[in-house]
Amino acid sequence: MKNFILELILCISALSFAAPPQQKEPTVKVTFAKDLVVNGTYQKLVTSAESNSGPILYTLYDGGHLYEEIPTAINAGTYTVYYSTESTEQYESFYATATVTIGGTSQTIGAVTINEDNEKKKFVTIEGYCAADEDFKISEDFNAEKVVLTRKFDHLDVYATIFLPFEASTNQLEGISEILQFAGVTPNAETNRLQVETISIWDDSPETAPITIQANTPYIIKMKAPSLEIKGPVTFKKTKPPFQHIGNWTFVGTYTFKKWDPFYSNPYAHENEFRGRYYGFAAQDQREGKSNYIREYQTAVKAGEFVQFGIGARIHPMRAFLVYDPDGSYAAESTNSKALAKSAAYNYSSTPLDFELPYSMDVIVINRKNNTTSDIGKIDPDPNSLKKNRYYDLKGRNLHGKPKARGAYYKSL
Q1: pLDDT below 50 — which residues of the chain?
Q2: In what order do the strands lie in the sheet with 166-169?
Q3: Does pTM top 0.90 for this prediction?
Q4: Is the distance from CB of 299 to CB of 291 less than 8 angstroms?
Q5: Is residue 318 part of a domain?
Q6: Residues 313 and 204 in one domain
Q7: The domain spanning residue 38 has which CATH number?
Q8: Which helix (H) or strand (E) covers residue 16, if one does?
Q9: pLDDT tens digits, residue range 320-352?
Q10: Which pLDDT score, from 0 to 100, does residue 209 have?
Q11: Concatenated DSSP letters for 174-236?
């Protein structure tokens, strides 16, 4: 009996001090796409993948956030795919890289990438959240077989600003329910309050005939779908100043990322010099008290209100804003500017205003069909474009997550 107890104790001791099971090297097999050629669509860079140690995670950015989804790309070029598996009780973690090429050529100009396949057909991508400050400018017209706009419209049935560098029929623009055009700023006959007038020039009702949306012209649109799909070929037009000057005001489209900050590139919204000449649509609610807008103290602001831009306001390419321009100097500077997009940073040479512009204005729609006028309520500048805590590389590309690798990045605050 004693021998049995002793053997049992020795056995238990051996089990207690046994080494933990050693992790094995996992088996990971990934097949990458070959013979890809740019075609205006997102193409998968991985054709098959399997692992005996859990899901395979991917990213196209060194140190970027990892996802289970197969990575895709739309522009011509060579991509580095970073892929890995996480450590488990049985298997070690795995990490590797591979390169995949999409054939053709590409040229990136600001937010626009122009791709060509082997037959010289052009496919264009417009980055909806580009934070680069490079202008988009072309000196002659060209035809594109397909255009993809990456901008998302999360808030439907509200209004957003947009302008495009190409002309297209409304039959080719899927996802829009109404298009408005800027018509000026006038005082309301009853309240004497300034109001922004717009004209409804097209809607998606069956009886409405299609129209052509002009290139380099800012519009206000209402969306019924989260993305704007451009169907079929379109013609990109030679770059010209994207503005409409009516009366004392200029409605301006921007080709590049702009930030109203006296310490960012050009101090074109410094309150001492500009006194609230710029207007746009508030992206989020603002409490009463200190705010990001021109005045030091403001009443509460609701998302979608048409208010003065101030310190901290920002706007991504292919959107529009309104500027008080009584003598047409802003429009004249835009016309003669060597760098057209830089006109949004134009410094007025005139003295500061000797009066105070209103903090906010109403926006109304004049309907040509029945000659009625209505208040369009809230206008949304695409809240995604103004989200905080986005990370970008030095070329202004959105990293879709917090970078983990060492390097130079910048973050929208």
Answers
A1: 15-18, 264-275, 290-298, 336-352, 377-390, 392-397, 404-413
A2: 142-144, 234-236, 166-169, 212-213
A3: no
A4: no
A5: yes
A6: yes
A7: 2.60.40
A8: helix 2-16
A9: 988 888 877 776 665 544 333 333 333 333 344
A10: 94
A11: ETEEEEEEEEEEEE-TTT--EEEEEEEEEE--TTSPP-EEPTT--EEEEESSSEEEE-S-EEE
Q: Are residues 98 and 158 in the same domain?
A: no
Tokens standing for residue 329? 């100097």
Beta bridge pairs of residue 60: none
Helix/strand/coil for 332: helix
| Residue 67, token pair as written in the block | 């996802």
Give the Cα separation of 321 and 51 in Å (integer): 51
Distances (CA, A) of 230 to 107, 112, 187, 402: 20, 15, 37, 31
pLDDT value of residue 22: 87
The pLDDT score that the predictor gives to residue 20 is: 60
Strand 360-367 and strand 194-203: the pairing is parallel
Return the structure tokens found at 70.
């197969």
Q: At residue 232, what is the residue type?
A: G
Q: How far is residue 29's CA from residue 22's CA, in Å, rounded to a whole number? A: 22
pLDDT at 183: 92
Core vs surface per residue 258-273: b (16+ CB within 10 A) or e = bbbbeebebbbbbbee
- Select from 141, 144, 133 the least CA-distant residue to 314: 133
Q: Which DSSP letter does residue 341 get?
A: G
Neighbours of 123 (CB within 10 A): 23
Largest interatomic CA distance in the chain: 110
Burial 331-354 (b: 16+ CB within 10 A, else e): bbbbeebeebbbbbbbebeeeeee
What is the rounded CA–CA span in Å between residue 247 and residue 351?
A: 20
Task: Determine, yes or no, domain membership for 410.
Answer: no
Bin 162: left if φ > 0, else alpha if -120 < ψ < 50, else beta.
Answer: beta
Structural domain harbouring 276: 152-225+235-386
Alpha-carbon span 146 to 7, nearest angstrom: 79
Tell me if 4 is assigned to some domain: no
**What confidence tens digit (pLDDT) does each residue in 81-126 have?**
999 999 999 999 999 999 999 999 999 999 999 999 999 999 999 9
403 in any annotated domain: no
How many CA atoms within 13 Å lie on the side-chain side of 377?
A: 3
Residues 43 and 178 in one domain: no
Which positions ≥6 away from 20 have C-beta within 8 Å?
none
Question: In total, how many domains does the chain have?
Answer: 2
